């Protein structure tokens, strides 16, 4: 649309400012009131359904009721005729400044400025949540920085309208939003409340401090998988002088379970404001960044550390242990020791499953893969040293090595890689080695993989427990004089 385009005979589109999945944003002029406005013209692909357009108007009217200095004002909502069907548009106040996405191109913000910006956004979110409106699409490009510590939050209510529209049109319930900032409940299609915005605020604050969101991947699906199952890298590893209390706030906001996050935006903002207050009182006690604990707090912590969670990895581990026990009972491999080894592996996998699904998978699936390899036809005694079969065995060995490395480097999970490792490794071993050494090599490999995985998981749990203790200590007063320097100096 060019400069001569006028919507409803009133709003002249002067300049296109940007384009996204929901439509295009233009700088325009309200001819009646003679003022500059921002016009968001929605995509016809998302707005051809009459009920969806009505829903969009209702959400826009609800968002227009918000009256807060950090919320962009909605002036009008209408529809423009189009060959593909009427296209809804929003008329908002024109906000001069830069989006946080543009600001972040120059690198992360100073710590104090990042906290002040996050507090301003949280104040706006608290206002919208009190009016029953969840933003659902908090991200740097939806926040304009209008001055030092002042912001304007854009697009309230729009994401909800189009989440429902996408569900109606595609029937998939696909999440609308940017994958880097979607909460786990948005991705899984569960019920959403204001705590989804708090999760996005944790992602936003992480990026303001480090220059990158907490989860990155080669595809949107890889990023969404991390939101569901992975833990973010601590901010202190990427920027060492970030106060531990701020890091604890981010960790709390990024909890997978909404019940474990802050109760509301005000509580999260108060925790961050307390960090800024320390700049004037360096020895003052920092506010506890976590929601209040109850008498069951210790039991809850132990539950999260040792409870069996219904995940794909735990299901794979359980299946491997059960199959290992069945292989032992069915005498699938006719040797004197294999039945005992398979039984021990299955039981050990079941015992370790509540502690580590990865360790349980490493133990339980070994005998299963060995039993399949024993009964396969891919062996040197049958096929000889033919180049094609030897190539298959070599590639299987290489695949096994890659799968093992992938499982070791995975921060969370890795069960699927371990299953693939065992099937590829045993198939390769059974082709290359003679019958006298095959089982010996398998027993050795099973022992080494089990010990290595146990040591790796122990290291991960020790580091995680150490990080939890440091986060819990973030609310204690600074005692040592050399460390009690003013926080304003550390927030530069």
TrEMBL record:
Renumbered residue ranges of the record's region Disordered: 473-492
Any GO molecular function: ATP binding
Enzymatic reactions: L-seryl-[protein] + ATP = O-phospho-L-seryl-[protein] + ADP + H(+); L-threonyl-[protein] + ATP = O-phospho-L-threonyl-[protein] + ADP + H(+)
SMART domains: S_TKc
EC number: 2.7.11.1
Class of enzymatic activity (EC top level): transferase
Name of this protein: non-specific serine/threonine protein kinase
């Amino acid at each position: 649309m060019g400069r001569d385009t006028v919507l409803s005979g009133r709003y002249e589109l002067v300049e296109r400012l940007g384009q996204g999945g929901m439509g295009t944003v233009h700088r325009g002029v309200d001819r009646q009131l003679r003022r500059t406005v921002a016009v968001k013209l929605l995509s016809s692909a998302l707005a051809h359904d009459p009920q969806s357009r009505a829903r969009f108007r209702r959400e826009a009217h609800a968002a227009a009721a918000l009256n807060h200095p950090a919320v962009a004002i909605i002036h009008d909502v209408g529809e423009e005729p189009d060959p593909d069907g009427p296209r809804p548009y929003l008329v908002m106040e024109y906000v001069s400044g830069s989006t946080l996405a543009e600001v972040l191109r120059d690198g992360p913000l100073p710590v104090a400025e990042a906290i002040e910006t996050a507090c301003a956004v949280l104040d706006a979110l608290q206002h919208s949540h009190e009016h029953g409106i969840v933003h659902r699409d908090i991200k740097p490009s939806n926040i304009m920085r209008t001055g030092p510590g002042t912001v304007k939050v854009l697009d309230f209510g729009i994401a909800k309208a189009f989440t429902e529209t996408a569900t109606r049109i595609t029937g998939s319930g696909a999440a609308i939003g940017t994958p880097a900032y979607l909460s786990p409940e948005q991705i899984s299609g569960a019920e959403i409340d204001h705590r989804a915005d708090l999760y996005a605020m944790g992602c936003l604050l992480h990026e303001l401090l480090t220059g990158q969101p907490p989860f990155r991947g080669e595809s949107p699906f890889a990023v969404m998988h991390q939101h569901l199952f992975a833990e973010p890298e601590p901010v202190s590893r990427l920027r060492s002088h970030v106060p531990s209390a701020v890091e604890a706030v981010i960790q709390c906001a990024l909890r997978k379970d909404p019940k474990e996050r802050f109760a509301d935006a005000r509580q999260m903002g108060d925790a961050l404001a307390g960090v800024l207050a320390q700049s004037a009182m360096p020895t003052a006690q920092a506010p506890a960044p976590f929601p209040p604990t109850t008498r069951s707090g210790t039991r809850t912590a132990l539950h999260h550390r040792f409870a069996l969670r219904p995940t794909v990895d735990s299901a794979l581990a359980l299946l491997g242990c059960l199959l290992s026990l069945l292989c032992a009972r069915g005498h699938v491999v006719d040797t004197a020791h294999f039945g005992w080894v398979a039984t021990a592996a299955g039981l050990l996998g079941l015992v370790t499953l509540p502690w580590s699904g990865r360790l349980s998978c490493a133990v339980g699936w070994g005998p299963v893969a060995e039993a399949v390899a024993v009964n396969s036809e891919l062996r040197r005694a049958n096929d000889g040293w033919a180049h094609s079969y030897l190539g298959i065995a070599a590639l299987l060995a290489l695949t096994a090595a890659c799968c093992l490395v992938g499982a070791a480097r995975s921060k969370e999970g890795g069960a699927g890689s371990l299953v693939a490792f065992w099937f590829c490794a045993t198939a390769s071993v059974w082709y290359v080695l003679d019958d006298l050494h095959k089982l010996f090599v398998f027993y050795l490999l099973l022992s080494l993989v089990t010990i290595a995985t146990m040591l790796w998981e122990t290291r991960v749990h020790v580091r995680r427990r150490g990080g939890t203790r440091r986060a819990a200590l973030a609310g204690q007063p600074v005692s040592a004089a050399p460390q009690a320097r003013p926080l304003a100096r550390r927030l530069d």
